[in-house]
Design goal:
By secondary structure, this protein is an alpha/beta fold. It has nine helices and eleven strands. It has a nine-stranded mixed beta sheet. It has a two-stranded antiparallel sheet with strand order 3-4. It is globular, with a radius of gyration of 18 Å. The structure holds iron/sulfur cluster.
C-alpha cells in the first residue's frame, strides 16, 4: 500500500487542536479560484525543470508504515498539548485506500486524527473513512450550487450530504469558511450560511479563512491560470464585522486556522 503526499509539516498549530503534524495528500478534484496550494492539485508526482520550494519535484510516494514512523517522532508534543495528526491536501479522500489504511494504523497507535476536507467524495468513501477520525475540519465554500460549480468546478450536493452525515452521526465538526470578496461574502449568503448551520444543530465552531494573495507567485511558477488577480484581500474591519455577525448567531468564531 502506498500513496502520494507533497508535504509534511511538523509543529503545526492551525490545523486542529494542540501541536500537530500535518500530512499533505496530493490531488484534488476541485479547482477553487482562491486555492492556496495549487501544487496539490495534480494527483501524480510532478517533475519540474525549475525549483519549487527548493526542489525539482512536487510530491513523493510513501506508505502508512513510513508515515507512522515519521509522526511518532513528535509523540511527546502531541501528548503534552492534546494534539495529533491532521490529514490535509489537496483532498485526502482522493486517495481513499491509502488514507484509510494510514488512518487505521495511526489510530491503532492511539493518535488523535483530524481530517481537513472539502467533503467532496462519494458517500461510501466518505462514510468508510470517517469512522477513523476524531475531528473534521470541513470546508463550506458556497451554498448556492450554481456558484459552487462556477468557483470550485464541482457541485456542492454530495458535500452537503456528507456534512449532514457527520452531524447526524455526532461527529465533531469545525466548519472552515473561506471568506472570498465578491464571491461568498455578501450579506445574503452569510445569512444563508448561518441559517443552514444553525439548522444542522451541534455545529458551534466556525473558522473564517480570509482570502489572501500569498499564493499568487505559485500560480505564475506552476503556470496555473490565476482568476483572482484583481481581487483584494478583505480588510481587518470587514473580517471583524463578519466574525461578530456569526458570533451574534451563537457560533464560536476563529479567524484563520
Ligand atoms: S479544495 Fe482546497 S486544495 Fe482543492 S482546489 Fe479547493 S482550496 Fe485547493
Amino acid at each position: 500500500m502506498s500513496g502520494i503526499i507533497f508535504d509534511i509539516k511538523r509543529f503545526a498549530i492551525h490545523d486542529g487542536p494542540g501541536i500537530r503534524t500535518s500530512i499533505f495528500f496530493k490531488g484534488c478534484p476541485l479547482s477553487c479560484w482562491w486555492c492556496h496550494n495549487p501544487e496539490s492539485r495534480k494527483t501524480e508526482i510532478e517533475q519540474l525543470n525549475f525549483k519549487f520550494k527548493g526542489k525539482n519535484q512536487i510530491g513523493w510516494e510513501t506508505s502508512p508504515e513510513r508515515l507512522l514512523t515519521d509522526v511518532e517522532k513528535d509523540r511527546p508534543f502531541y501528548e503534552q498539548s492534546n494534539g495529533g495528526i491532521t490529514f490535509t491536501g489537496g483532498e485526502p479522500l482522493m486517495q481513499p485506500d491509502f488514507l484509510i489504511e494510514t488512518a487505521k494504523l495511526l489510530k491503532q497507535n492511539y493518535l488523535h486524527l483530524c481530517l481537513d476536507t472539502s467533503g467532496f467524495a462519494s458517500t461510501k468513501i466518505f462514510q468508510d473513512a470517517s469512522q477513523y477520525f476524531d475531528l473534521f475540519l470541513f470546508d463550506l465554500k458556497h451554498l448556492d450550487d450554481e456558484n459552487h460549480i462556477k468557483y470550485t468546478g464541482v457541485s456542492n450536493n454530495v458535500i452537503l450530504k456528507n456534512l449532514e452525515y457527520l452531524v447526524e452521526n455526532k461527529k465533531e465538526v469545525h466548519i472552515r469558511f473561506p471568506l472570498i470578496p465578491k464571491i461568498n461574502d455578501d450579506s445574503k449568503h452569510l445569512e444563508n450560511i448561518a441559517s443552514y448551520l444553525t439548522h444542522l444543530k451541534d455545529i458551534k465552531n466556525l473558522n473564517l479563512l480570509p482570502y489572501h494573495k500569498i499564493a499568487q507567485g505559485k500560480y505564475e511558477k506552476l503556470n496555473f491560470e490565476n482568476k483572482m488577480k484583481v481581487t483584494q484581500e478583505p480588510s481587518k474591519t470587514e473580517v471583524e464585522n463578519i466574525k461578530s455577525f456569526f458570533e451574534e448567531k451563537g457560533f464560536a468564531v476563529k479567524i484563520g486556522g
